Amino acid sequence: MPRLATSLLAAAALIGAALADVPITVGDGGAILRDGKPYRAFGVNYYNAFMRHLRDPANTSFRDGFGELGSLRIPFARFAACGFFPDDMKLYVDNKEEYFARLDAVVKCAEENNVGLVPSLFWYNACLPDLVGEPRNQWGNPESKTIAFMREYTRDVVSRYVASPAIWMWEFGNEYDLAVDLPNAADHRPGVNLKRGTPLARSEADDLRFDMATTAFREFAKAVREIDPHRPITTGNSLPRASSYNQRAESKWIPDTREQFTSQLIDFNPDPCNVLSVHIYPPDHEKRFDQRSTSFDELLALAMDASRNSGKPLFIGEWGARDDQEGPPRDAARRDNFEMITAIDRNNVPLAALWVYDLPDQESFANVTSTNGRKYLLKAIELANHRIAANVDGSRRVDIAGGNWLGSLLDFVYNKGRSGNGFNPLQHTRFRGENLYRDDGTGLYFEHIFNGTAKDAAISMFTPNNDEHSVVRIDAATAVMKHPADASAWGVESEMRYTLNGGAVDMEFRATPTRDQFPLGYCAFMWASYMNHTRDRRIYFYGLNGDTKGWLSFGDDTSATPEGFETGTIACKGVPDLPYEEGAKTLNVLENPTKKFILPFYYGLVDGDGDMTTSDDTMAYVMMFDQRETMRFALWNFIKNASGKQDTHSPAWDWQFVIRNPEVGKTYGYKARVLYIPFTSREDIRAEYERWAGGPGAG
Known about the structure:
The protein is elongated and about 85 Å long. Helix content is 25%, strand content 25%. Strand 10, helix 12 (328-346) and strand 11 (351-354) form a beta-alpha-beta unit. The strands form five sheets. Strands 8-7-6-5-4-11-10-9 form an eight-stranded parallel β-sheet. An eight-stranded mixed β-sheet has the order 15-20-28-27-23-24-21-22. A seven-stranded antiparallel β-sheet has the order 16-17-18-19-29-26-25, covered by helices on one side. By secondary structure, it is an alpha/beta fold. The protein is built from 15 helices and 29 strands.
């Protein structure tokens, strides 16, 4: 007996030492901590990494999968650490040693590839009750065979892997909350599949209620805490249904209020579970709060409010947009996916796992691999994790809000792989969550400096983005981007100040050349905005087309260009063309030969809510400038859709500022305004410009 006691004490000491180094823990205020510091990350769902090996021990494809995830530096994967049907669990019942040998192989492989794991122990809500011969309502009975089996399996799994550095978090199951308190529960009872071990029939006893699910969650968490006092515990729930609170209270499909949503989210993740779990997909933002739609951004902001109020970190166990075919649906899914990434990032959600990596059964609509059409998502996750790591000290992303705007100003390091520095997102509060610029791009982006010479061709593209620069928050509504001269390939000291003001974004640019590098007599600066959900690619302005004076459009279809539509630069009437040398980069130098602007503003039309089927939300995106001769407009359309054609809803609406005969040490500058207003008429837009600029014909 003394020797046994000594052995138990030694084992307890080893487990205690291992637990002291658990990968992540829960901190104050709903934070996830790693190495004692707040931590955020994007991961993936690797749903059947174990299940495929459980069903076929010869299938060890999880080894390649975890190897690839490790090479992509994707830090964690959520997976089903169980079977789906009762017959999948027969091996556990009959031969635990073999069952765990197969699970051991998966966990060890994750360890070897530095991929964290979120094992979900009871994925399908009917599996365990069916296995022990009870209806689903026995999840709510702490004395049931279902709960007894749950405790046994939980203790076996947790005690076996409690010292594994791969285990990040323990999860109960998958989306039990969606099966709870259904007014039409009789139509949504579990299916019957006798070959897989289900009963012959279902009954009212299989209907789940809120208290049944939360009882199971609590009993699971208690069983975990007997062995592991530190790791986070999550329910695996989805986002509460749009009427979840009122289903529970009245068994009716009555839309919940925002307050009821957050209350239900907290209640559905009861102690000792110390994580709030949600899954979010495109339909989730529709028909909530008794309105046609909301946004991913608002839903996650509300969920993060619930996280802070409960002190439980938010875990997005699944996110993603299904695309069932090529063409426009895949384009829409891509936009939704990037919109979700932006919302997750902007709201500082601690952990989020993409659905789903390497699941061939869902190849037609969800499966993500490094070789199929959704491989861009693996890169997007890698870049999202780069952004999080790059901004640990908060110096590379500045969040500001003012008037009708919410925005994040990013430097080139933070926004790596998404065009460059600038705003991502920039949202108008009328369309909360709808980024004015592409979520995989940027807007108001300081992109180029050029001088038309051949010797400087190499630095005539993208140097303001690639040169070291900084973003600084001045106050709640104002931020500045600074480029120091000693880091500039051109030796130009510059700064752009952005202020969110009412319905406008006001900008003020200042630049000072510190060396003579402009032999052709000019220095040109260029900014780009990769637009999101425009009505079409064209911009409109008041100017000349040859001898014809009036309102003009640019970006029109034409057979005169290889692209089949107009692109390039529009200069002011009467301003000499910019000279250039043979061998220079001329893409942004050449002007349209016939179209010129007279008044220094242009506008384009945007679908405000991003839903192209609506027609009552057309917004005018207006670019105004306080000068004429120094300014130039530009339009490009590089981004292509899933069909390989230029996406007419994602043009680049750009502008340039040209200093003629720049002098070393002299400061130059201009002011500009972005105005975003409902479109009524072009004359109303002109009136807005004149009010800002100081009267008719101003500029």
